[in-house]
Design a protein that fits this description.
The complex is a heterodimer. By secondary structure, chain A is mainly α. Chain A has 7 helices and 2 strands. In chain A, strand 1 and strand 2 (22-28) form a beta hairpin. Chain B has helices spanning 46-61, 79-87, 93-97, 133-148, 182-186, 190-199, 231-259, 261-277, 283-298, 307-316, 319-326, 332-347; strands at 24-33, 69-73, 103-107, 112-116, 122-129, 155-156, 160-161, 173-180, 202-205, 218-223. Chain B is globular and about 65 Å long. The chains are: A mainly alpha, B alpha+beta.
Amino acid sequence: MNCEKCHKNHATIHLTAIEGGMKKEAHLCDECARQTGVHLKFNFSISDLLGGLMEPTTKTPKVNQVRCPECGITYSEFKTKARLGCANDYEVFRSELLRLLEKIHGSTQHAGKTPHTVDAQVRKENELIRLKRDLESVVKSEDFEKAAEIRDRIKTIELELNR
Amino acid sequence: MKVEELLSQSGEWLKGTGPESDVVISSRVRLARNLHRFPFLTVATPQVRAEVEKFVRPRLEEGKLPRKLVYWSLGELSSVERALLVERHLISKEHEKADGDRGVAVGADEAISIMVNEEDHLRLQVIRSGLQLDEAYEEIDRMDTALEGSLNFAFSPQFGYLTACPTNVGTGLRISVMMHLPAAALSKQMEKVLQSLQRLNYTVRGFYGEGTQPLGDFYQVSNQITMGKSERDIISELKKVIPEILKFERSWRHKLIDDEPRKLEDRVWRAYGILKHARRITSEEATDLLSALRLGLTMNVITGIPHKVLNELFIFTQPAHLQKIERKILDPEERDAVRAEFIRRRLEGL
């Protein structure tokens, strides 16, 4: 069976949904499924996807149905409420928000205060990179005592960062 | 401290002593902050709201902060007490009306307050008398930094402090300068002021913030842009704009007294007469007349009334204040009588 969308590739993804008692089906190739956003979601509602697929002339762009896996809101819900659901939305709706922020603020890059906890984290991450580089060179020079010391320090920082 | 005790004091910002206080009532700065790993309040279940309050409250009450704060859970207050906090500018109208677990932490002189579970998990504000933007920002920055010691705020290096509404993201900083612009309003010049401010990306709101009508010729000018500029840049840009408005208002005040001194005097003294003798007065009328009286005071048309007394009258004649003073629920007509009496008493012997 060929993909319903491009009519070229072999359909490898088959979706079925019951909507209003009616069975709806969609058969897509990998490429077209990715383009429709299947790969983006974890708890994507199939009927939403089918709705979007079966009405290619719909005014609502597909991005409106992208759902944040953490808070569960879609971009179109955000547009209605004008409020985001969680911090993760800034990543999930990133490209749309970048356009919006450019409109609102004339900028998409924060230029103000940074919490010192974040500063500390960035510092630790930088130290980790440096220590791993050091470790390589002391191992090469066979200074195993020093290597053990560095390894301990790396472990401590990794624990701190994961906390 | 109980909410009631607010009646025996008034906020530091009502002193009327700050710089440029002939025009500028107060400088207010606000920071929006959310907690890392908690959903925003838009989608928060009652359990999450409760968790946020339970997590934040002890950290606001602990002694290590630069200012000692008293926490009130809004659910434990009466509706009159909640309305009183709005009239005091300690919480927003939305916070008053909302449902679910929420609260506010307030400093003793009311200069600082922190709303919990409003639109964002935390909304910090500092209000200062007159034009004191740097001082207000320094104070809020100290509190914010101190809170970072115990709270992990949602932050991204690109987007800055993450907020529920993208209009606040970045610095989360909103600066509002409350100004009294009666001469510009009387001379029908406000449209001009509003238009030029909007062109510069500033918004203008009424006495009680978002969605409120300008009352008694009080206008709040705020920055719209919160991202792409540092806090200092946002402040210094506003510091360039405000003096222009001051100059404008003052020039119209002088024009009033030069062109039609009798008209101005009449307006001021009539206002004083009504305030001093009326037996019933609505909140709108009182605000209008107090506004005229304030104009007269700053222009020496009338003397002998301390600014503090006048500023307090604006706040204490609001409905919740009157009901709390009288210790009972009053219908609007009863309030008008109580309000008139309250004003008469305050102006007696001045």
